[in-house]
Amino acid sequence: MALMTGDQYVESLRKLNLEVYMFGEKVENPVDNPIIRPSMNSVKMTYDLAQMSEHEDLMTTTSNLTGEKINRFCHIHQSTDDLVKKVKMQRLCGQKTASCFQRCVGMDAFNAEYSTTYEIDKVYGTNYHEKFKKFLEYVQEKDLTVDGAMTDPKGDRGLSPSKQVDPDLYLRVVERRPDGVVVRGAKAHQTGICNSHEVLVMPTIAMRPEDKDYAISFSIPTDTKGVFMILGRQSCDTRKLEEGADIDVGNKNFGGVEALTIFDDVFVPNERIFLDGETEFAGMLVERFAGYHRQSYGGCKVGVGDVLIGASAVAADYNGASRASHLKDKLIEMIHLNETLYACGIACSAEGYKTESGNYIIDLLLANVCKQNITRFPYEIARLAEDIAGGIMVTMPSEKDFRDQKLGAYVDKYLKGVASVSTENRMRILRLIENITLGTAAVGYRTESMHGAGSPQAQRIMIARQGNIAQKKALAKAIARVEE
Ligand code: SF4
Ligand code: FE
Predict the structure, then answer these.
(1) Which one of the ligands is nearest to 192 CA?
(2) CB 201 within 8 A of CB 184
């Protein structure tokens, strides 16, 4: 079974024995929890779309390991065409969910691990690459969702992992056994981990020789003993708990979810370890994973942007303002910004190249430029969406008032826009804009655009490194006929 259906995916999650906490309580049934369910539906969409013939070319491909048809989210990119299709697939998934569909972190981790393990083995004669391929075959065969876990809590940012007052602030090996290692630590902001079958752990920064115990990468099932998740709060999250919640949640069926994930002395068997102590390769793994994930944002955020632009245009229609030239211009600006992000995602893919291991990696400079723009443009797109929507987006009475016997008629009457549109539909569109710009989906569309796949400064460091100022100076000197 190389392709699961969406329903099979949901059933497969039921079989996991996850330890998940929210609001100080253990969640006994994450799959049916009203706060988690929409985020699970977003991942389910990556399975559902793969079953549709019209999306087959983007959503599925052929495994280089087994020759089987697999979901592209489990794929090792074999060409620049694969890289381009990855971005297109993410835009599609963003359009269908208007949120973070979570499965990309695993895909990006697979591709970073694939090439890095190959290069470690070449230097050290280790067998990480073969072990990793075996793990990946299992993932592809079962069509699993894997959480790529990179970000450690990091404690004092001025100190390296081994110099922290609390040694657990970066995940580390605390015990070595003949059959594996025991690890302790945490991974923060884990996108979709409670909807994942496996967690693929990577180090979070480049390391020095003294950080040996922190240079560890491995994968284990998410319900391994000692692993537990504390879900993050999102703005307006408890609206999902309200009885009959519908209009007010904005995006009823889809969402994203993150968790602080604790590894409380967790055993990792040898066959699942893909880096252990080769400190100088931690940086390569981080840089490649971050590069792939910065490319990813040129797809997923653009797809969500498409929904937000559409919602803004509908809001303008419902207000009877769509013929105003300044509104038309604002929509044009939103499209321009959104397509610029897409152009960066496509460009870093088209300019990708083959690694020593044979898989394809994006152009790192362009991927970092892509993500740097992502830290800005969604904010401007959101600003324009709020401008077009009007203040009513945040002052509007609740759905309960709208349904109330006495108040309903007044809400209906005074929230009316153009006469031909129902107040209910106007409320629905405004709540969707609220959801993406300020509500639960704002985690994925706004703040994640800032900090996901690395905060803006991380990209600027890479841009400085890759930007080749020396070559540009030489160009200028040649044109100016400067002789030194
Ligand atoms: Fe995928 Fe985007 Fe979510 Fe990252 S933020 S997991 S790229 S949808
Ligand atoms: Fe992300």
Answers:
(1) 1
(2) no
Find the helix packing angle between 128-142 and 104-124, rounded to 10°.
160
Residue 93 annotated as catalytic: no
- Enumerate residues 6+ apart whose C-beta is below 8 A from 467: 365
178 and 60 within one domain: yes
CA of 312 to the centre of ligand 2 (A): 24
Tell whether 265 and 386 lie within a shared domain: no
* pLDDT tens figures, 87-128: 999 999 999 999 999 999 999 999 999 999 999 999 999 999
Mutate to test the pocket of ligand 1, among 99, 105, 306 (most ligand atoms within 8 A of CB): 105
**Is 75 annotated in the active site?**
no
Statement to judge: residues 27 and 132 lie in one domain? yes
Q: Say if CB 89 and CB 107 are below 8 A apart.
A: no
Residue 482 placed within a domain:
no
Tell me the CB-side half-sphere exposure of residue 396, using CA atoms within 13 A: 29
Q: What is the pLDDT of residues 291-341, one digit of tens each?
A: 999 999 999 999 999 999 999 999 999 999 999 999 999 999 999 999 999
Please enumerate, as own/partner, the contacts of 52-58 that have beta carbons within 8 Å and a separation of 24 or more: 55/92, 57/85, 58/85, 58/88, 58/89, 58/92
The confidence score (pLDDT) of residue 1 equals: 62
- Domain contains 353: yes
CATH code of the domain covering residue 438: 1.20.140.10
Whether ligand 1 lies within 6 angstroms of the CB of 300 is answered as yes
Q: Is 170 a catalytic residue?
A: no
Query: Domain holding 169: CATH number?
Result: 2.40.110.10
* Cα–Cα dist 115/2, whole Å: 23
Instruction: Judge if 266 and 333 occupy the same domain.
Output: no
Domain region containing 411: 290-467
Mean pLDDT (whole number) for 218-223: 98
Instruction: Spot the catalytic one: 19, 113, 287, 448.
Output: 448
Domains held by the chain: number: 2
Q: Does any domain span residue 478?
A: no
55 is catalytic: no
Q: Are residues 232 and 100 in the same domain?
A: yes
Which residue among 83, 150, 191, 362 is best mutated to probe the pocket of ligand 1, counting the most ligand atoms within 8 A of its Cβ? 191
| Residue 39 CA, ligand 1 centroid: distance in Å | 12
Q: Is 104 a catalytic residue?
A: yes
Does the residue 484 lie in any domain? no
Residues 443 and 319 in one domain: yes
SS3 181: strand
